[in-house]
Amino acid sequence: MKFSPNNIWLSSRDYVIIVFGLLIYAFGFCAFVLPEKVVIGGLVGVGSIGYFLTGIPVAVISYGCNLTLLAIAYKVVGKQFVVRTIFGATVINLFIGVLQPFFPEPLIAQQTFMNIIIGGIMCGVGIGLAFTHNGSTGGTDIVAAMVSKHSNVSIGRMMIYCDFVIISSSFFIFHQIDNVVYGLVVTFLASFMADQIINTTRQAVQFTIISAHWEKIADAINNEARRGCTVLEGMGWYSKHPVKVLLVMCRKIESVTIFRIVKSIDKDAFITQANVNGVYGQGFDMVKLKMKDGKRVGESGELLPPAHAVPHKEGK
């Protein structure tokens, strides 16, 4: 998109909300979760484990670990996401580093479960706000964003898968199953709240765009949103003039980006948006089915031999 006062304002607003979301996350973690000696998911959880074992601040360990994922994220999700991730990881660990010394004890004394509930909700809200505006708290959020960009697995669900091992490892430190259970409660709550905030579901959205500047819009969607466009022939029945119609499919979380691109090029463009229950193909979900003739279709769409025709190896 072109640099303009409106675009600069939108980008600045995104960063302000990302900072606010990360502040909520850091406060919920430092004031309610960490003083209860509960390990949560993500690299913040890894930092917690390192803190309990060595006494090194959580922020130092977490920020150091974040750097190892950024090269991978750069190739998969693009430069803009990595820049925002560096920004997010720096801010979240800065907030944690500043807030951790102020809360040696839980904010609510002798109310472990209440602290866990409040902390989990605040962490989830913070993550959701950051992701809604294309930010990241770093850690396993990077993995979740990469997977959700190419599959129908929600960010919250992917976070659960990635974080389970980290949380379970806390048992070997404290030898108390209670800490593991509390860690899982925080993770499930945070994942649920993140999904509610960013509204990430299996649904995709379909855009129909009619504009005299359809070529510029199509190029911008390809280059900036990294989504494909299909150009259809149409006719305006009132004007009796031929028109070009752009058909665009994208994830629900990407719809704001599409709107911004179109409006920055043609504020008078005609746009319709509709929810789509299933989108299958490159960049979306893969169809897994069994053909009537016994052939099988793999995840990449290739034909596989029937199951009975695949030789199996005999054990020695």
Quickly give the structural class.
alpha+beta
Tell me the fraction of residues in β-strands, as a range: 5-15%
Low-confidence stretches: 305-316
In DSSP terms (H or I, runs of 4 or more residues), the helix count works out at: 11
Helix content: 55-70%
Q: Give the termini distance in whole angstroms.
A: 63 Å
Task: Spell the H/E element sequence.
Answer: HHHHHHHHHEHEEHEEEE
- General shape: elongated
Determine the oligomeric state from the structure. single chain
Query: Would you count the extended β strands for me?
Result: 7
Give a description of the structure.
By secondary structure, this protein is an alpha+beta fold. It has 11 helices and 7 strands. The strands form 2 sheets. It has a 4-stranded antiparallel β-sheet with strand order 2-3-1-4, covered by helices on one side. Strands 5-6-7 form a 3-stranded antiparallel β-sheet, with no helix packed on it. Helix 2 (42-54) packs antiparallel against helix 3, helix 3 (58-77) packs antiparallel against helix 4 and helix 10 packs antiparallel against helix 11. The N and C termini lie far apart (63 Å). Mean pLDDT is 79; it is low at 305-316.
